[in-house]
Write a structure and sequence with these properties.
It contains eight helices and no strands. With 174 residues, it is mainly alpha-helical.
Length: 174
């Protein structure tokens, strides 16, 4: 491990730059689309559940969101990889409870599980455009509702933990 640290240490700031850029892409790339399109479209359908025009708009926005979220989902693995490399390159230790250990616990317990679900419902089994193309509209609507539930559950975590991890990384309060 010491040899790896010596090899990576001269590149620490470049790795950190890639890490910070990836964190910014991951944490902010979907914020405007979510706030200005997804939330209003879903709320509009909730208030008018039989309005085909509103449903079509919601569906279009979600299909576009699923494809647009790719940037976020490329950034997250870069965050994890560069974070691990920085741990090695920087010779960080986990002795005691520090800002870094708290930040890593947030990543492991909040962000990783959230992203696993998000990847699935945006790209894999829950990818809405692919489901619509099969003609299974009951499954399509079910995944729309699952994705909306995911948003409702994950949004408070995002609002709390993304700023907290920025704070911990920048201020290093303990």
């Amino acid at each position: 491990m010491e040899t790896l640290t010596q090899i990576l240490a001269p590149w620490y700031m470049q790795i950190k730059f890639l890490h910070v850029i990836s964190v910014a892409m991951w944490s902010f790339s979907t914020a405007v689309a979510y706030r200005d399109y997804i939330v209003p479209a879903f709320k509009s359908v909730e208030h008018n559940p039989n309005d085909e025009t509103r449903i079509a708009r919601r569906n279009d926005f979600m299909e576009r969101f699923d494809s647009g979220v790719v940037l976020e989902h490329v950034a997250f693995p870069l965050i994890v990889i560069t974070g691990l490399i920085m741990l090695i390159a920087g010779g960080w230790s986990f002795e005691g409870f520090t800002w870094l250990t708290l930040k890593l616990w947030i990543v492991v317990l909040v962000f990783v599980p959230m992203e696993v679900v998000d990847y699935y419902i945006s790209h894999f089994g829950g990818q809405k455009l692919r489901i619509r193309r099969t003609g299974d509209m009951a499954r399509y609507e079910r995944y729309m509702q699952i994705h909306w539930l995911f948003f409702k559950i994950s949004t408070p975590f995002i609002i709390i933990f993304i700023p907290l991890t920025y704070y911990l990384a920048i201020v290093k309060p303990f």
